[in-house]
Amino acid sequence: MKAVYATDLSAASEAAIETETCLDCLGRIGVEELHLVTVVPDNVHAGTPGIDHEKRRRRALRRYQQSIEDAGFDVETYVVRGTPHRRINGIAEMIDADMSIVGSRGKSPLENRLIGSTTRNLARTSVVPLLVNRIERDTDEPELVEKHLFERMLYATDFSGNADRAFEAFSYLRHATQEATLVHVQTPGSPGPDGDGDPEQRLAELADRLEEWEMDVTIDIREGSPADEILAAETAHEPTTTLVGSRGQSRLRRLLLGSVSESIVANAAGNVFIVPPNRIV
């Protein structure tokens, strides 16, 4: 598997990239190549007196590269200029990546409603699964909030086709997952899931599949606002990562992320793994 790892070369990014446990988790799920990408935004001028931004970034990436190669990965580095999320997505498509990874400082002090613009734009536009890697806020020496990325997964499903696609990520996540919580939120007045069986039965069928991979599985059926209840389930079960599908309702998916997915990315305490719909060719 190939993964694009986007970094802004901050102390927070360094904590994520150089955390041995995090790298081990990526190796367990089959990642063999890491493509480190840092983007010099268009509004940072190459001719800033006395500063060569691209040279400084290449030097920093070489230090990261050595650490990651020592952990057993093949590494490529890219210093590019442009709009960060567009360049990161472009490289992911160019190398046919299996996933992208971006660090996020987590909950915002502004009522937990804001996340970094690059993270938000990647969540809305990524055409490959995106891991939002949560990093501590308000500290000079930040660490990952959850170093064992996939050890305890919370999977939220509305039984849609894209939720099913997100569930299939367990085919590789299972090599690093020990516990899984399966969550479905029933909205009052809404129709039931498509297909046969009630939610409890359908979650039980999914649980059987995961238990075949020797996971400990918990089922949690809730009622209310999907985003609020999924976040409440995260608080209750304390997963290391929440797995969701981002559901595209129209061709405007690249501009509009489903409100549930966006709320989870913005407000989850731990990591979030977003699986987009299949590409339309």
UniProtKB/TrEMBL annotation:
Span of domain UspA: 2-132, 150-276
SUPFAM superfamilies: Adenine nucleotide alpha hydrolases-like
Classification via Gene3D superfamilies: 3.40.50.12370, HUPs
InterPro entries from the UniProt entry: Rossmann-like_a/b/a_fold, Universal_stress_UspA, UspA
Protein name in UniProt: UspA domain-containing protein
Coiled coil: none
Entry-linked PANTHER family: STRESS RESPONSE PROTEIN NHAX (PTHR46268), UNIVERSAL STRESS PROTEIN MJ0577 (PTHR46268:SF26)
Recorded family membership: Belongs to the universal stress protein A family.
